[in-house]
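Below is how a single chain appears once it has passed through the pipeline. First comes the sequence as given, then the structure the pipeline wrote out for it. We keep one example in the README because the format questions we get most often are answered faster by looking than by reading.
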Amino acid sequence: MKDPIFTGSAVAIITPFTPDGVDLPALGRLIDFQLAAGTDALVICGTTGEAAAMTYTERMRTIEYAVQRVDRRIPVIAGTGSNCTENAVALSRDAIQAGVDGLLVVTPYYNKATQEGLLRHYRQIADTVDRPMILYNVPSRTGVSFQAATYAALAAHPNINGVKEASGSMSLVQATRCTCPEDFFIWSGNDEDTAAICLLGGKGVISVAANVVPQEMVRLTHLALFGQLAEAGRLQLRLKALIDGLFMEVNPIPVKTALHLMGHCQEVFRLPMCPLSPAHRTELEGILRSYALIE
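Resulting structure:
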């Protein structure tokens, strides 16, 4: 019987940049902010971390730094997915060498693999690692989605811990929970779905919003997981305007802008990410003020 690599709220942390590279001191402060808030796990170099626009050397140095800064206080999970299976294997091996506790591996994008292709891709990666691996289903970005039967087949692998489910399909979540064994765990990949997925047997969320409201996301997941459903529902609704604001443009543009406005990092993106539009910036500032996140 497997144990979940984490339960509750994992932050999909941004990667702060300067014009010259990764801003490791700012990353350290962001990690300290998360630890002080009680965040349950940290996901480094994922989508929100702009990993696709980082060099291999930058990714590994950033992962190593996060592992060292966290110092075993909470699990550190590294994004190591690729549309090339061999690249995903290499990223995963090197992240494990850097000391991570687990891996988050997105479905291979652009190639649009069949379900059989997904099975072979993930089995090949899982066969080469010795840490728990979380599958990542986000068809809006990759062009391919898992089916519940594919989850069930992969659930038998001892190194596959579960899935970050960001399809937005509650039907798929229900089919997965009904089809897969109890030790194939489900985490919400969409902040807005957190309470609902926990109600359906999920173990929490891998969260963008936790970058700016970590305590609230921890509280939301813990309320939902420990049966305080009405209160969890009220908190989910109270966070709706903020969550919507953090996705007014492509993630991570709004959340990094929010963190800059809160004084946590520079407003530096890697192309093709670019600054928030002026109209949306004004709107985001208003949302942050309404949540008392900026003056």
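The mean pLDDT is 97.

See the next section for the split statistics.
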